[in-house]
Amino acid sequence: MEDVADAIRRLAVRGAPAIGLAASYGLVVGVRAGDPSVPPLERFERAARLLQSTRPTAVNLRWAIELARSVAETSADGGAEATAAALLELAERLAERQRAADLRIAEIGAELVEPGDRVLTHCNTGPLATGGAGTAGGVIAAAWDAGHLGQVWVGETRPLLQGSRLTAWELGQAGIPFRLVTDASVGTLMARGLVDRVVVGADRIAANGDVANKIGTYSIAVLASRHGVPFYVAAPLSTIDPATATGAEIEIEERDPSEVTHVLGRAVAPDGAPAANFAFDVTPAELVTAIVTEAGLLHPPYETSIAEALRP
Ligand code: MRU
């Protein structure tokens, strides 16, 4: 289970939905392989604390742990093996639910893309980030399959390069035409009229529709608004956090400054240069044209559309 936490912390597993799923499997291991003298619920809580501490921004992690906690509490009387089996069943269910949500998001989102559109995306939101078809990545793939897509602009996504390392790979595998650009190119692309639509994923969406996503997303949204380019967010309902009223309450992960001063292990700044490394930013709801979820397309005012989508 420490291995799962470590994999999440060092981004071997990353992307909001994939983090939640990895944690739900990690809890199975935590209960099954824990100290036999420790009761199952205590093993669960120890694993939950460790997994929760890995990354603070993506709410899918907390969401998965809370669902698992209620399963653990109702199965703990049967012993550790029964608890682990119930947690495994939940993890499989959540993985299946994510795959189904991704397909629906892709289907709904693809309708927003018009033939020939040049779609800009940021970070990585395809199969590597969700275990299914992806969120924004799934929309892009479905739009391509439907013949609704011209090409994709992929921002490299400094500092860890999820765009150039992961999204470019996924698009290449799928045969979808793309061009990689530096993150700072977005203004120029839009000013030249080369972007028809933005589609990005999310790590947490507040009850008012504010969206936390990979650092750089907010700048893209401001530019999209300036240039009249629609800005869509694609995310499963598990990424919406009704307990977070606005984006101001979202904890933004700050990672090791060495990720900024070094690229792939090589220094790109003078020795000892101070750096700040915010992993995410918050895009205010007013800049979001619509949110694509498995429950349908959510429009402003998001307080209302989000509350309706989450109603049981
Ligand atoms: O730091 P990462 O790589 O976990 O950040 C991932 C993102 O910001 C994605 O855009 C987001 O999780 C949506 S994933 C479908």
Properties at a glance:
single chain, globular, binds 5-S-methyl-1-O-phosphono-5-thio-D-ribulose, Rossmann fold
CATH topology of the largest domain: Rossmann fold
The molecules bound to the chains, other than polymers, are: 5-S-methyl-1-O-phosphono-5-thio-D-ribulose
First-residue to last-residue Cα separation: 32 Å
Largest sheet: 7 strands, mixed
The total count of helices amounts to 12
What would you call the structural class?
alpha/beta
The order of strands across the largest sheet is 3-2-1-4-7-12-13
- Please trace the helix and strand order, writing H or E for each element: HHHHHEHHEHEHEEEHEEHEEEEEH
Assigned CATH class of the largest domain: Alpha Beta
Strand content: 15-25%
The Cα radius of gyration reads: 20 Å
Architecture overview:
This protein is of the alpha/beta class and 312 residues long. α4 runs antiparallel to α5 (80-110) and α5 (80-110) packs across α7. The protein has 2 domains: 2-102, Four Helix Bundle (Hemerythrin (Met), subunit A), CATH 1.20.120.420; 104-310, 3-Layer(aba) Sandwich (Rossmann fold), CATH 3.40.50.10470. β12 (290-293) and β13 (296-298) form a beta hairpin. It has a 7-stranded mixed sheet with strand order 3-2-1-4-7-12-13, with helices on both faces. A 4-stranded mixed sheet has the order 8-5-6-11, with helices on one face. It has helices at residues 2-9, 16-32, 40-52, 59-75, 80-110, 127-130, 136-145, 162-174, 186-191, 217-227, 258-261, 302-310; strands spanning 117-121, 149-155, 178-181, 197-200, 204-206, 211-214, 231-234, 240-241, 262-263, 266-267, 280-283, 290-293, 296-298. The chain is globular, with a radius of gyration of 20 Å. It contains 12 helices and 13 strands. The mean pLDDT is 97. Helices cover 46% and strands 15% of the residues. Bound molecules: 5-S-methyl-1-O-phosphono-5-thio-D-ribulose. Residues 11, 14-17, 58, 123, 125, 129-130, 135, 162, 201-203, 213-214, 279 line the site of 5-S-methyl-1-O-phosphono-5-thio-D-ribulose (MRU).
